[in-house]
């Protein structure tokens, strides 16, 4: 079983998947193979798996894992994507097409206000944590991208940072002048190549604990800070295509969800359109 999973990991890498995706998908596939073994399937190679698989058996796995892990629709979609990917690895495209993902739970993205940002900054444990919060909020980078940023990725002369996103895609993100100056001072004092030598989990804990200390009664995560940049820019009239570029979204459809969280801007546009007719 382990050999098959290792082969699958290599296949995912060839497909250009990120390290996080490879780790997540291979973890799900391992659970799936364990499920097959527990259901009396003898696994010797990829052919033995293919010969034993059917739509009903896969649906049984998904149903059991949904109950066991208490998965919502969005989380279950991740399992479906991983299993579909594994089926493609097995050259079983026809079966992969039969496994349909549940509809997306279209919840609006959460975000924080400027007042809540200031509360976070005031309650940060130290200067490094304060910089992490500012960096996530003002650049909108993912936490997985944040921890990979090195000193030479900051282009001080032009005020940008090179960000390496999903699938190794590179993009350039602007940094506000004040934050740029603070980063310069901080970088001169550290000996590590990475600006923030932490794991994703450590960054998540820093944000969570700081929010709790600040008395913010909503869930605050690195991703919430990313959402906050998007909603702030959109509310200030920034073109959604620029926001797409900053966030590194592969499709404009992903970015468009933020248009649902700025009703004041929509009201302002509506008034401008109809004010002359109604005057």
Present the secondary structure layout:
Blueprint: H1 2-14, H2 19-38, H3 46-52, H4 55-69, H5 73-89, H6 93-98, H7 114-122, H8 127-139, H9 143-146, E1 154-155, E2 160-164, E3 170-174, H10 177-187, H11 200-213, H12 222-235, H13 240-247, H14 252-255, H15 263-278
Antiparallel strand pairs: 1-2, 2-3
Helix pairs in contact: 1-2, 2-5, 7-8, 8-10, 8-12
Protein name: Integrase
Keywords: DNA integration, DNA recombination, DNA-binding
GO molecular function: DNA binding
Examine the secondary-structure arrangement and name the CATH architecture of the largest domain.
Orthogonal Bundle
| Helix/strand structural class | mainly alpha
Task: Please state roughly what percent of the residues sit in beta strands, choosing from under 5%, 5-15%, 15-25%, 25-35%, 35-45% or over 45%.
Answer: under 5%
Mean pLDDT reading = 84
Domain module tally:
2
Rg is 23 Å
CATH topology of the largest domain: hpI Integrase, Chain A
Name the CATH superfamily classification of the largest domain: Intergrase catalytic core
Q: What is the global morphology?
A: elongated
Biggest sheet features: 3 strands, antiparallel
Strand arrangement, largest sheet?
A: 1-2-3
Number of strands: 3
- Count of helical regions: 15
Instruction: Please identify the top-level CATH class of the largest domain.
Output: Mainly Alpha
**Which percent range fits the helix content?**
55-70%
For the termini, the CA-CA separation is: 73 Å
Low-confidence stretches: none
Question: What pattern of helices and strands is seen along the backbone?
Answer: HHHHHHHHHEEEHHHHHH
